[in-house]
Batch of 4 targets.
Target 1
Amino acid sequence: MQGAPVDKGMKMGLIDRAAQALALAQDGVDWDHLAPETQARFRENVRLILNALREPDEAMAEAGAEIIRNVGPSESDSAYANDAVNTWRFMIDALRDERA
């Protein structure tokens, strides 16, 4: 499987990054060669996938809880932001590790 799409100089949102990865995996076509309506369909598919994944499973909740347990009231705003990023990553990693 190929890597994530390359950001071509502009800050790319997560929906677009995911849509590009889905398009590449599904059709093997470079994003820039897709018609705008096809790009929109891939973006909508990503939103549908996110809606299906919105509620974390038990493993994801536990992975996120590991970070939350260590949050202290004296942390700085940047530390809270870093905790949020790590919580997201831990939860996604737990989801990726799930075996069907």
Note: The radius of gyration is 17 Å.
Target 2
Amino acid sequence: MQQNQNNQLPISEPPISDDDTNPSGIRPIGGSRPPISPLSRALGFALSAGAVLLTAAAAVLYFQQSSTPAPTPPPPTVIIATRAPTAIPTQAPPTSAPQDLNQPPAPDVLAELMAQPIDTTASNKVLYRQQTAFTIAPPGPRSAPIDYKIQVGDTIEKIAAKFNITQDTIVWNNDVGYINRLEVGTPLTILPIDGILYTPSSDETIQQIADKFKVSAYSIIDSEYNKLQSATPSLLLPANSLRIMIPGGVSKKVAIYWKPTINTLPAAAGAKGGGQISFGGGAGSCGYQSNGGGDGSLGYPVQNYTFIRGFTSYHSGVDLAKPTGSPVVAAGAGTVIFAGWSDWGYGYAIVIAHTPKLMTLYGHLSQIAVSCGQVVARAAYIGAVGSTGNSSGPHLHFEIRENQVPVDPVSVMGGF
């Protein structure tokens, strides 16, 4: 086979016929379309119409669902467990007579209502506010001094605590120099605050009064009790014109529990011992007795006690509570120089001289088992606990006196 000049083989294709099928499905230009049958045309129209209707229905349903509100869920049902079926009271038939709303329900209906269980569980969705029916306000200060009568069992300490003032305030404003001689029914002036209630006996300025009681003049002027807010420190107050409250004022007046007359006689030349001593007066006094008889060592006068009151400027010993009749022993060896009734509030009392400079006192006894001038050993039985004299209950009042002056037994004996 021969090739042409362009290296192409001499191949020729037959002419295209109109009956040939185009592989691409595209008819040649200028060709004629096959005719469409009426049945195919009707079927196509029906399918198109159905698709349009289906799309329209879906759109309508979509917009209806989006515009319709969600239904409200029903309220939850609360089930209350009971042990037995609850009977529901039968409603009384209506009557023509008007109902009195102030009348309580019938007894059987009330009983049924009260028998029904009550759900007291607090809801966690509700805030509850607790309320009180009334307000408790602290009492305010008194506006003026008052008169108070001493009662059975009272002491200066108890009275001061009752009115929230110091013992000094009571002593400074009353004639109670001898505290242990307080008698039931004796009136006391009780101030509303600590300080001095003062009546000038001569013409004095506010400043002079303030200097006398060691306070500022303006504490007197500003005090609501004096009504002197417009005054000045130089204001002259006439004698016996008015009583002045001096808040915080202090006085040199002191209280005394028992300051008995004590006399001593020196020992005769060449004699041993500390001579003689006479302690106090009244029924219990033993007159002159030997001043001493011991070595000065001390022990406890009672055992298994309750310490109820200590030593202060208004209490010259310690109070040790025990039942009435409990034994009391001598704290140390010595001579009895007082045994009997004390007119100074101690009731039945005993005083023992241990050395010329040391003595002990035992007060409020229910029984005395020693006599004047008796020499006793340490821990010897001398009497019994009681509540005689000015006492608030069964206890032993125990004092230690050095050089005739009361001292704190706790410091001398190392504790109680």
Note: Residues 1-9, 19-31 have pLDDT under 50 and may be disordered.
Target 3
Amino acid sequence: MKKIALVLAFAAATCAALIASPRGARAEIGTTDQVPAATLLLPYFEVKLDDANGVNTTFTINNASASAALTQVTLWTDEGIPTFSFNVYLTGFDVQQVNLRSLFDGGVVPITADDGLDTSDTVSPQGPRSQDINFAGTGGVCETLYTSPELTSAELKHIRTAHTGRRSAVLGGCAGATYGDLVARGYVTVDSVTQCTTTNPATMGYFSGTADSRNILWGDYAITSPADNAQVGSSLVHVEACHGGGFIGYVGNGAGNCPFGAGDYTFYGRLNGWSGADNREPLSTVFATRYVNGGTFDGGTDLLVWRDTKLPPTGANGKHNCSKTPSWFPLSQSDVVSFDEQENPTDLCFVVDNFSPAIGGSRPCFPLASQRVATASGNPLGYPLAPPASFGWLFLNLSHTVTGDQQPGVAQAWVESVQNASGRFAVGFQAIQLDNALDPGAVVEVLIP
């Protein structure tokens, strides 16, 4: 058994207001903190397509500024392939909920409109302290007011099949993992943008004129399962952008990373050839989280895990023959260790009889770009975690390397924990981040003799 030493360094954090002041929220690039951001990440969603009372996911987009905002919402499959994008307009201090069941069942997106399309303020009302303006679009203005439903029957069938691992006629192949349970899975990004558009972060030129760098968005989400009498929720992941002369609003050494340049690890780096064009901070690579598989939480603990494939969703990593998988599948990991409540460590995701396995082992426990993983049994498409003790905590180093990797040995990720009390309630919370992809391993060191 490997001997593992963990060195944890704790830093003092400054308080940040959710509502932006004229001076701006205080934040630090390279530290994933809950402050207004230019991009929001919903790391995992589920929608049961054949049961109106089945699991569903909702999230909100909030504007922390008095200035109006325009956002681009993009759905991605659990293989990291974009399927559909739409705009949501927000007046100052506005909030808009997105119900993914409404989208996947009826093709309905939130109906919002900027000032030019909503002169009577009946679609997107303007508050007394809120800005309401026009945004440009493909034809010079945001010309089209969303109708209901917005998606055509072909588009609706496309997202339903693509997010359940079946063949999409729009894509001409498959784009997601196959579980066979008619649950749509994937993740969502929300970007602040400067104009109405049908493009997404994987489109060439998106970060040279469409994406905005204003850190004014915040939000939260909930995954609801009426059949299980359970709902869990948390904040969305807030991804800040470097912006403005002198990068006002940032403190500490993190601001020294601005602006990002070629070869830097950024949140959308895989989509722009690691050019730094998106100018958005990356997430962490190493996490710690409690798990409980018994007692009050007799339903066990699930992990909601988002991972960076580090490859663009094109060619062998884009849509594919439904009998095949992307070239990177399954994603490996650098180290996964469970500690019981007497501090006894156990290596997980490794072959038991392998005396000295290479870092990462040979059993991928988190194989996809987005997934739910039960700590007791694992993801059906990966290998089980199965910590020997019912109570304890997990150390998760999710860095990996893929063929042609421009960021070898480093991979951003996100982990959230859901603890279930069967048929009664559930709770969810974000895992503790022990480093950042800008400085991996600076906080946690793993020693393998």
Note: The radius of gyration is 21 Å.
Target 4
Amino acid sequence: MTIKAEIVVIGAGVVGASVAYHLTERGARDVLMLERGQRQGLGSTGAATGGVRSQFETDINIKMSLYSLGFFRDWEFDCEYEPAGYLFFATTDEQLEYLERNVEKQISLGVRDVEIVDTSAIKRLVPILNCNDILGGSFGRHDGFINPLAVMRGFTDGALRRGARLELGTEALRITADGGRVTAVETDRGRIDCENVVICTGARAAELASGAGVELPVEPQRRQIVWARSGEPLPVGLPMVIDIGTGFHFRPAREFTGAAEGSRDFSANDILFACPDPNEAPSVSTKFDESFCENVYERARHRSPFLFGCSIIREKCRAGLYENSPDHHAILGASGVDGLYLANGFSGHGVMHSPATGRALSEIILDDGASFLDVSCLGLDRFTTGKLLHETAFI
């Protein structure tokens, strides 16, 4: 077991791998990633659906997305970026006005090819949709899908090529500090002396942070996905489709297999659909609840007879964990303990914002501040100063 490292990144999912990648890109060489699983991708990264979008409400989420989508598009590593688009639709005047305000802001911040669309355009984009009660929506052509495991593997390979190390099957038990400064990470395989630690452990981050005296307001919450198959192929180029009022959404299904390869496997007839459950209590359960299928199908009954007629592929239905912060925005940067840094609370946006997150953390650690993008509004201190952010489109 490695007994010393300059920087220890706890958690080697897509966020932790991105932090290591960007640190080594900047010249840091003594970087050690710890992963409690026997292989990467067994946590939230492997359960993610791989959606990416710039259609957000807050400036910081839009800017994080702009950087990250550009990264995915231009990266030398193939992460299977597919700009199929995101469609948000509205069924009330208030919802449509909300989308109109968002699009105006997105365009002002540099988002390209996002627009307000009317009902007839929505019907052309998604011919399987019941549009009788839809007033309009917003559509972003550069939003779409990526392969989360391919992204994770690309970050990991890049970090390892530049000298980082990865220890699998190693669980961080506690972070020790002396005089308000990080000194070591205690693991189930021994102690690692270090100068800096980055917590990237997703939904379980709060417990690890608390051992170092940091109160991290992140709660785990189960999110479930129904995998279904239609009797005929889906419409070509089907985007992600989201009801802004209920959060019900669906998209073509992609099964990402092989954390080492990040390979594609999908059928032209397969589709995913889901809806946030407002009654889902915080927990670390990843057991799929069969009754969830009934709830989602009730949404599908009205919204799309095509969806309602699809057959559930129960062995492919799954549940994963969101790591929710109180305002559903990431918590990035310093923790109040010298040498201890946070990359947590993504609330479902960890994969899509992983490039921006990794670069921000690398600059904060090495330069004492992120210069490519001001992420200070995502600091932990906002929960004590009351400067919380607000994002309605939380799915």
Note: The chain has a mean pLDDT of 94.
